[in-house]
Amino acid sequence: MFLKEGDLRVEKNSLPEKLLAMLPKKYRLNGKLDFLRVRNKGRVFQGKLFGLAVYKREDQETSRFGFIVSTKISKKAPERNRAKRLLRESIAHVIKEINLGFDCVILAKSLIIGRTLAEVKNEMLGLLTEGGVRTLK
Fold first, then answer.
1. What is the tens place of the pLDDT at every residue in 67-112?
2. SS3 for 103?
3. Which of 43, 79, 94, 104 is 20 to 30 Å apart from 129, CA to CA?
C-alpha cells in the first residue's frame, strides 16, 4: 500500500524511527564506477567493526556514501541486512555534520554482527573524523 500526500496528518518528528533513518538518494553512491573510484583513488581507515574508504572529490556537492556487506560477513541475509541498516542509520544521524565533496564506501567486518546502534555510531563518528569527512565543532 502506498501513501499519498494528505493520507497522514502527522508531524515529521512523530514518524517511526525506521522511516527517518533512510538515507536520501542524494547521499548515496550511484553505481560501480563510483565504488571503483573510491577503491582506486581513496584512502582507507580501519575500525574494529568496519573500514571506511574516503575519496575527496574536486567539487563541493553533498558527500555520498556506499555500503558493502558481503556474504563473508554472514551467510544469513537477515544478519547482513541488519548490518546495512545499522550503518545507514549511523550515517543518517550525523549527515548534517558531514563536510562537502567526499565519496565514502563503508566496508563491514564480521564483528558488526550482533552490535548495537550505539556501538556502530560511536565507531562511525571516530572514523569519519579521522578521515576528514566530519569536523568537530
1. 999 999 999 999 999 999 999 999 998 998 999 999 999 999 999 9
2. strand
3. 79
pTM: 0.81
Closest by CA to 52, choosing from 37, 62, 42, is 42
Give SS3 for 1.
coil
Give the distance from CA 94 to its chain's centroid. Answer: 10
**Is 124 contained in some domain?**
yes
CATH number of the CATH domain containing 38: 3.30.230.10
Q: Per the domain annotation, does 89 fall within a domain?
A: yes
b/e map of 29-56 (b: 16 or more CB within 10 Å)?
beeeebbeebeeebeebebebbebbbbe
